[in-house]
Amino acid sequence: MKLYEKAVLICDALDALYPDAVCSLQYEKPYELMIATRLSAQCTDARVNQVTPALFAQFPTLESFADADISALEEAVKPCGFYRAKAKSIKEMCMRVRDVYGGVVPDNMDDLLTLSGIGRKTANLLLGDVYGKPAVVTDTHCIRICGRLGLTKRHAPEQVEEDLRKVLPPDRSNRFCHQMVLFGRDTCRARNPLCSGCPLAQWCVDPAFTKIPKK
C-alpha cells in the first residue's frame, strides 16, 4: 500500500471517530485565535479558554491590544505562564497587524511569520481555521501519532509538516490535525497509549515513537 493510500484510510477512520473536529481554542475573531495560540505555548488549551473570555472583554479590539499598557496585559495573561514574553508578543503582533496589515490578520505564511511569537505551527492554524487553506499543524500529538503510524520518520515540526503535505489530501489536512489532538488525548497518549482496541491499530508500525531520540 502506498503511503498516500494509507493516509487516506487513516483520514477516513478519523472522520468516523471525530466528524466534527475543530480547534479546541475558543475565539470569535481571527486576531483572537492569533492571541489564543500564542497563549497556548507551554499551556493547556483548557487553561487558555479559561483566561481568554476576561482577556477579550478587557481588551475588546485589536487596537486595544496594540495600545495596551504592558503591565496590565502581563497581569491579564499571567495564568497562562511565561506572561512577560507572551504579553510582549501579543502587543507587538497586534501593533504590526494594525500598522502594517491594516488591521487584518495576514492570509499567507510569509507575512504571518513576520508577527512576533508566530511560528509555522501557529501560522498553519490561522491559515487553515481562518482562511480555509490547506494547512498542517504539527503539534506534539500530530508528530507522535504520525510517527507511530509511519506517516513520518522524523521529529522536527517543519520536517513532519513537509512529510505530511506529501501524503495528506489538501482538503482534509487541517481537519486531520485537529483530529490528531483529540485522538492523542483519548487513545494514542504519549505515556500508556490505549493500544488494545485502538481503531487505528492496523496502521500502527512504531508504538514506541514518542520522543526525540537523544544524540
Summed up, what is this model?
By secondary structure, this protein is an all-alpha fold. It contains 11 helices and no strands.
What percentage of residues falls in helices of 4 or more residues?
Answer: 40-55%
Low-pLDDT residue spans: none
Query: Could you give the order of the helices and strands?
Result: HHHHHHHHHHH
CATH topology of the largest domain: Endonuclease III, domain 1
CATH superfamily heading of the largest domain: Hypothetical protein, domain 2
What's the total count of β strands? 0
The number of helical segments is: 11
What would your notes on this structure say?
There is one protein chain. By secondary structure, this protein is mostly helical. Helices cover 55% and strands 0% of the residues. The chain starts with a helix and ends in a 29-residue tail after the last helix. The mean pLDDT is 96.
Question: Which SSEs are present, and which pair or pack?
Answer:
Elements: H1 3-17, H2 30-39, H3 45-58, H4 62-66, H5 70-77, H6 83-100, H7 109-112, H8 120-129, H9 140-148, H10 157-167, H11 173-186
